[in-house]
Write a structure and sequence with these properties.
The chain folds into 3 domains: about 10-120, 3-Layer(aba) Sandwich (Rossmann fold); about 145-380, pyruvate-formate lyase- activating enzyme, CATH 3.80.30.20; about 385-470, OB fold (Dihydrolipoamide Acetyltransferase, E2P) (Beta Barrel). The N and C termini lie far apart (about 50 Å). It is built from 12 helices and 20 strands. It has helices spanning about 20-35, 60-75, 90-95, 110-120, 165, 175-185, 225-230, 250-255, 275-280, 285-300, 315-330, 355-380, and strands at about 10-15, 40, 50-55, 80-85, 100-105, 145-150, 150, 170, 190-195, 210-215, 215-220, 235-240, 265, 305-310, 335-340, 385-395, 400-405, 415, 430-435, 440-445. The strands form 6 sheets. It has a 5-stranded parallel beta sheet with strand order 2-1-3-4-5, sandwiched between helices. It has a 5-stranded mixed β-barrel with strand order 16-17-18-20-19. It has about 475 residues and is an alpha/beta fold. Catalyzes the methylthiolation of an aspartic acid residue of ribosomal protein uS12. Belongs to the methylthiotransferase family. RimO subfamily. Its EC number is 2.8.4.4.
C-alpha cells in the first residue's frame, strides 16, 4: 500500500483562466506543474489555499475583466497570485490591490510556482511518480481537441497592439519538441490540433529555422516543415494567426492533399492602404487578393477566417467603403470584427482624427451585415454536399453538435446532425448538408427519411466570436 498522502491532504490551488487560447495553454502548463508537485485544484474560493488568476490585458475591456477577477479572488480568498498579460503592469495591479501575494508576467511558469510554494508548500511525497513522457498533462479543453502553442511573443509593432510589451519578441519552440508534444496529444485521443501563436507563419525565424529530428526524419523549424510533420499524425490540424507572407503558398498544397485542414486564420485587419500604414501592417491589398485567388485555385475547399478593425483613427468613409469592396472581392468565409478601442499603451492612441463612437458602431454594423450575407451564401452553397465532421457533443435530445473542416471550436459555426446513431464526442463522421443559415449548417446521414422537426436555429444577427485580435 502506498504511503502517499491522500488527495484530500494535498494543498489546493484555485485557478481562474482568462484571455485567448495562448493564455489557456499557459494555464494548462501551470496546472500540469502544480499537479506534478503534488498540488490539487479547488473548484471554490473557500476550498483553496491560494488562488492563481491568469489575466488578459490586450483591450481595456479585457483589463477591466482581469482586474475584477483579481478583486473577486482577493475578497473571497485573500491569497492571490496574478500572472498573465496584465502581469506586465505590476505597478498598476499593486496600486489597485496592494495585498496580492505575487505578480508575474505571461508564460512565467517558474515564477508562479515559486509564489505558490512560498504561500503553501507542497507536502513531500517520495512515492509520487514522475510525469510519464507520454502524458499530455492537464488540459482545459474537451478531450478531442487541444491547442498547440508553437511560439511566444511577436516581432511586429502594430500601432493598435500591445502584445509585444506584454509577451515579448518572437521566441519559437524547437520543432522536435513541438512535434513530440503533438504526437503525445494524438496518442491520448486528441482528434484536432489547433496551432496557435502570435504569428504562426513567422515560426522559426528567430532560431534560424533550426532542424530537429522526429520519427527518424529531420524537420526545420519553419511553417512549412512544421505543417508537413503535423500532417503525418492523421488527425485534423488547424492553423491560426497566419500572416499572408509569400512562403504561406508552400503550405496550401498540403491542405489540398488533406495533410492539414484547408483552413487559414489570417488577421487582415483592414484593406485601405492608408489605414494599414497607420496600423503598421502590410498594405498591398491587391497582392493579397491575388494570393487568395491562387490559394483557392490550388485548394478549392480552403476556408479563410479573419478579423478586422473598423473605426481606426483617421479612417474615412472612403476608407471604410474600400474595406467593404475588398471584403466582397475576397469573399472571406469566417469573419469577426470589432470597433477600434483606444488601448492604454498602444501607439495608435496618439494618432489624430479619432472616429466618433457612434460612427464606429454604425460601420461595425454595416460591415457585419456584408460579412453575414457572404457567409450565408457560402453556407447555402454547401446544401446537398457530403462533408466530413468532428462531433463536439451529443445533446440531450439526441442531436449531435459537430463542426466541419471549415469551423474552429469556440469561434465559428456548427453543423447539427439528426438521425445519426452511435456517435460520441470526438468521433469523425460524414454528413449530408440539408439546411443552412448565415453561420450554421444542419445535416443527416445520406438517405435518411426526413423528419418534420429540425433543431432550432440560432438567433438572427449573431456574429462570429473572436478568438484573437492580433
Amino acid at each position: 500500500m502506498s504511503n502517499a498522502p491522500a488527495a484530500s491532504d494535498a494543498p489546493k490551488v484555485g485557478f481562474v483562466s482568462l484571455g485567448c487560447p495562448k493564455a489557456l495553454v499557459d494555464s494548462e502548463r501551470i496546472l500540469t506543474r502544480l499537479k506534478g508537485e503534488g498540488y490539487a485544484t479547488a473548484a471554490e474560493y473557500a476550498g483553496a489555499d491560494v488562488v492563481v488568476v491568469n489575466t488578459c490585458g490586450f483591450l481595456d475591456s479585457a483589463r477591466d475583466e482581469s482586474l475584477n477577477a483579481i478583486g473577486e479572488a482577493l475578497a473571497e480568498n485573500g491569497k492571490v497570485v496574478v500572472t498573465g498579460c496584465l502581469g506586465a503592469e505590476a505597478d498598476l495591479i499593486r496600486e489597485r490591490f496592494p495585498n496580492v501575494a505575487a505578480v508575474t508576467g505571461a508564460h512565467q511558469y517558474e515564477e508562479v510556482m515559486e509564489a505558490v510554494r512560498r504561500i503553501v508548500p507542497a507536502k513531500p511525497d517520495p512515492f509520487r511518480p514522475l510525469v510519464p513522457e507520454n502524458d499530455p498533462g492537464v488540459r482545459l479543453t474537451p478531450k478531442h481537441y487541444a491547442y498547440l502553442k508553437i511560439s511566444e511573443g511577436c516581432d511586429h509593432r502594430c500601432s493598435f497592439c500591445i502584445i509585444p510589451s506584454l509577451r515579448g519578441d518572437l521566441a519559437s519552440r524547437p520543432v522536435d519538441e513541438v512535434l513530440r508534444e503533438a504526437e503525445v496529444l494524438a496518442a491520448n485521443g486528441v482528434k484536432e490540433l489547433l496551432v496557435v501563436s502570435q504569428d504562426t507563419s513567422a515560426y522559426g525565424l528567430d532560431i534560424r529555422y533550426a532542424e530537429g529530428r522526429w520519427r527518424n526524419d529531420y524537420y526545420k523549424a519553419s511553417f512549412e516543415d512544421l505543417s508537413r510533420g503535423l500532417g503525418e499524425l492523421g488527425i485534423w490540424v488547424r492553423m491560426h494567426y497566419v500572416y499572408p507572407y509569400p512562403h504561406v503558398n508552400s503550405v496550401i498544397p498540403l491542405m489540398a492533399e488533406g495533410k492539414i485542414l484547408p483552413y487559414l486564420d489570417i488577421p487582415f485587419q483592414h484593406a485601405s492602404p492608408k489605414v494599414l500604414k497607420a496600423m503598421r501592417r502590410p498594405g498591398n491589398q491587391d497582392k493579397t487578393l491575388d494570393r487568395i485567388l491562387s490559394w483557392r485555385e490550388i485548394c478549392p475547399d480552403l476556408t479563410l477566417r479573419s478579423t478586422f478593425v473598423v473605426g481606426f483613427p483617421g479612417e474615412t468613409e472612403a476608407d471604410f467603403n474600400l474595406l467593404l469592396d475588398w471584403l466582397e472581392a475576397a469573399q472571406i468565409d469566417r469573419v469577426g470584427a470589432f470597433a477600434y478601442e483606444n488601448v492604454e499603451g498602444a501607439a495608435a492612441r496618439d494618432l489624430p482624427d479619432h472616429v466618433p463612437e457612434e460612427v464606429k458602431q454604425d460601420r461595425l454594423a454595416r460591415f457585419m451585415a456584408v460579412a453575414s450575407r457572404i457567409s450565408a451564401q457560402k453556407l447555402q452553397n454547401k446544401v446537398g454536399q457530403v462533408v466530413d465532421v468532428l462531433v463536439d457533443e451529443i445533446r440531450s435530445d439526441g442531436v449531435a453538435v459537430a463542426r466541419t473542416k471549415g469551423d474552429a471550436p469556440e469561434i465559428d459555426g456548427h453543423i447539427y446532425l439528426k438521425g445519426f446513431t452511435g456517435l460520441s464526442a470526438g468521433d469523425y463522421a460524414k454528413a449530408k448538408v440539408t439546411r443552412a443559415d448565415a453561420y450554421d449548417l444542419w445535416g443527416e446521414p445520406e438517405g435518411l427519411i426526413k423528419l418534420n422537426r429540425v433543431p432550432t436555429a440560432r438567433p438572427a444577427g449573431r456574429t462570429h466570436r473572436l478568438i484573437s485580435r492580433i
